[in-house]
Amino acid sequence: MKIRNSLKSLAGRHRDNQIVRRKGRIYIINKVQKRYKARQG
Q1: 2: pLDDT strictly greater than 90
Q2: Which of 16, 29, 31, 37 could pair with 1 as two cysteines, CB 3.0-4.6 Å apart?
Q3: How confident is the model at residue 41, as a pLDDT?
Q4: Per the record's keyword annotation, is Transmembrane helix included, yes or no (predicted)?
Q5: Are 36 and 10 in contact (CB under 8 A)?
């Protein structure tokens, strides 16, 4: 999982990316391509 300051640019890299908010953190998850996981740090 990548930890990035800004997730907006990463979210546009694949059409199945979803921005999800969990426990005060913002994540990108992708059920199709698992490699597109990121967390805002």
Answers
A1: yes
A2: 37
A3: 83
A4: no
A5: yes
